[in-house]
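Hi W.,

Here's what went into the run:
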Amino acid sequence: MNLRGVGRPAIGAAAAAGLVFGVLIGLTRMGWSVGNPPALGSHGPLLALGFLGTVIGMERAVALRRGWVWVVPAVAAGAIVGLLSELPRWAPAVLLTIGGVGLVGVFVVAHRLQAELHITIMGAGAACWTIGAAGLLATLEIHRLVPAMSGFLVLTILGERLELARLIGVSRASRLWLLATSVIVVSGAAVSLWFVRPGAAISGAGFLAAAGWLARKDVARRTVKVAGVTRFMAVALLLGYGWLLVAGTIWVTRGLTPGVLSYDAAVHVVFLGFVFSMVFAHAPIIVPALTGRAVPYHRGFWTPLVLLHATLALRVVGDLSAWTDGRRWGGMGNAIAIALFAVVLVFSVARGARRWASRASTP
Amino acid sequence: MVDANDTDIALADQAWSALDSVIDPELGLPITDLGLVYEVSVTDGDLHVEMTTTTPICPLGEYLTGQAKTALAGIDGVGNVEIMLTQEPPWTPDRLSERARRQLGHLG
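Here's what came out:
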């Protein structure tokens, strides 16, 4: 199966729809009037498993260059369409469960090629995806699935960072720490399906362990000294680690209780502060990897990154101090930051294409 | 007189230099210093390069081979450029150059 010709753009378009509608649903739920987006109850699954599941699945398919791996992003993209079409919940849930199991399979194959801990950790992240999707299939309340959806992304990123940390040397103690961290995060995801208060605290402890290691050992602490895109990426990563520490602290001390304002903070410090900061960090290299189009770095990348973190801080202060306007305007700022980043990326791709065209036309 | 073999050896040297200009964007280091280039061979002006990624699940393979192809195609007198991406043998940190180790502050 070669999906490159038609499939890649179609899967990419579904991912983009998942992102756009996921953000619009989030704004609507905060009380903003932004049209009338469908699937108001699907904000979390749409973004965490739909959009990010599709993008991460595409990354793995491009990397492993085996046709069957495209099943993972294809079913995640199908789930986005299913969620937005408001099909019965079981239909996208089945697709997402297939995607999660498929991604576990991808890491089993990858581990045969290179038997390394970072692949095991990413496989544990895929197991979290599967747990979350299975919970969706069992029609559990979304807040019970948040530790699984978060665990998928936290462990995926942790595995990627460990992979790079091999370049500066990883001690045996670090490996044991990260293995234990993964077990804790997966356990928290599973326990939360039934007992969300202790489950969230377990996951929160895992996030603290992950963030502590990343903040101290990640290669970004060294690459931040290299100017240009490398420094941009490193700063986005390091800011994300800070938010993951905040997330772990909130999850351990306050848990995940929907209906209270700290719930909004608990969820979004992970998904926006940590995960979307990682998305911003990696976009300048992932977009070329997925599309074959160059994304030349320019200083404009910094504006949405600063806006994302500043407005998330406003939102969290609003959440924790019951300052509703701070929370709402922070949320709007988060959405503007994501939209602005997309605009900057498109501008950058166009600039790269123009530069290429002018080079090609030079005699 | 320069025979075909001398030309090919010179071309291989130029190819390694060209590959020095392909930078891993995340680490800010050349792919040559990262030990991602396994082999450069030249036959009658045609270049064959074997390279890898630090892990089989790294999505940058296509991007880096594309960058490498562009860099190699710019060498005067080069014929066909063929780049193979392989995971055999798997990359290990032992392949880092001294310069990369110094820059990264390798602890191992």
